[in-house]
Amino acid sequence: MAGAHDDLTALRQHIDSLDDQILDLVNERARLAEGVARAKAQRVQAAEVYRPEREAEVLRRLTERNDGPLSAEQVTVLFREIMSACRALQQPLTVAFLGPRGTFTEEAASKHFGHGTGTAPLATIGAVFREVESGAAHYGVVPVENSSEGVVSHTLDRFLDSELAIVGEVELRIHHALAMQAERFTAVERVYSHQQGLSQCRAWLETHLPNAERLPVASTAEAAQRAAADPAAAAIASEAAAGLYGVPIRQARIEDRHGNTTRFLVLGYRSPAPSGRDKTSLVVSSANRTGLLFQLLEPLAANGIDMTRIESRPSPQAGIWEYVFFIDVLGHHRDPVLAEALEQVRERASLFRILGSYPRAI
């Protein structure tokens, strides 16, 4: 027994020693970050402090050389927080997101920027755009598509009358929980959630709460707030939202598809430089004619460009049954091959705008 105790003591002492070294190294990194801020003090702006391409390169390098036992995801989370804290020493940033507190969008903002960044919850996607456009927030985070339910149309539509660029993307695995005050499912008369939350848990609800009324609200966080005040109600929300609003979780991970993922966009004013693993988003349109879509897309295929997504939306300026197309392709618009392909698309389109080139989600 004494030998085992001695071994445990030695291990803990070694851990303490490593913790001291880690603390010293993190503070040294922070001092270097302060030095960077002083070196560019005359021109420091949010776009100088937050460099998506640089952060993506650092995280990719670290995960590639990681030998474990920490997973790549754990390494990414750890170093995002270190970068977030060091970034805050250079200039505090404010990130607007689709609120209220406890939404998946807040979780996505924290995943991307870390907890050293200030956040501002707003009631609508349009309000997030306006907050960044006005300069009240440096960046914004909004949802754009879900793997189960498809595109968030309001986000796409808002790009048509905004000068903002896409400067990053976040992919977040969505896990829904059933939170309620009651201890038995039979006591539940109504279930609150965002419409997508209700849709993503449809089969589970039909099996376990077939007689409960399903009531859509603005967000899963609002659903948790309502369930906190209504003993006959349940909420489909994140575990974070349930904890924030004090509603016990009665069943975790009730989503019908366990690969359920939502993609979020980071909004700003300037596309970052190439990171080596990028994506470009654009919106194009032209007068309706035979073979229109083929003509717009043909340069991408001819140049070997990988298109990852296309969505059509009614054009707000053109006549009935005329559309604009939102397209995502792999690569940065400065890459020579992609630049040539995009120029050919531009020549064929009446509307052509690059919404942004940015590092792909890590």
Walkthrough of the structure:
The protein is α/β, with parallel strands linked by helices. It folds into three domains: about 45-175, 3-Layer(aba) Sandwich (D-Maltodextrin-Binding Protein, domain 2), CATH 3.40.190.10; about 175-255, Periplasmic binding protein-like II (D-Maltodextrin-Binding Protein, domain 2, 3-Layer(aba) Sandwich), CATH 3.40.190.10; about 270-360, ACT domain (Alpha-Beta Plaits). The protein is about 45% helix and about 25% strand. The chain has helices at about 1-40, 45-50, 50-65, 70-90, 105-115, 125-135, 155-160, 195-200, 200-210, 220-230, 240-245, 290-300, 335-350, and strands spanning about 95-100, 120, 140-145, 150, 165-175, 175-180, 190-195, 215, 235, 250, 260-270, 280-285, 305-315, 325-330, 350-360. Helix 1 crosses helix 4 (about 70-90). The mean pLDDT is about 90. Pathway: Metabolic intermediate biosynthesis; prephenate biosynthesis; prephenate from chorismate: step 1/1; Amino-acid biosynthesis; L-phenylalanine biosynthesis; phenylpyruvate from prephenate: step 1/1.
Domain count? 3
Q: Report the end-to-end length measured between terminal Cα atoms.
A: 46 Å
The H-level CATH homologous superfamily of the largest domain, spelled out, is Periplasmic binding protein-like II
Give the helix/strand class: alpha/beta
Gyration radius, to the nearest Å? 24 Å
Number of strands: 15
Q: What is the helical fraction, as a range of percent?
A: 40-55%
Which percent range describes the beta-strand content? 15-25%
Order of helices and strands: HHHHEHEHEEHEEEHHEHEHEEEHEEHE
Given as residue ranges, the uncertain stretches (5+ residues, pLDDT < 50) are none
CATH class category of the largest domain = Alpha Beta
Q: What is the residue-averaged pLDDT?
A: 91
Main pleated sheet: 6 strands, mixed
The coarse overall form would be: globular
Q: How many helices in DSSP terms?
A: 13
What CATH calls the topology of the largest domain is D-Maltodextrin-Binding Protein, domain 2
CATH architecture annotation name of the largest domain? 3-Layer(aba) Sandwich
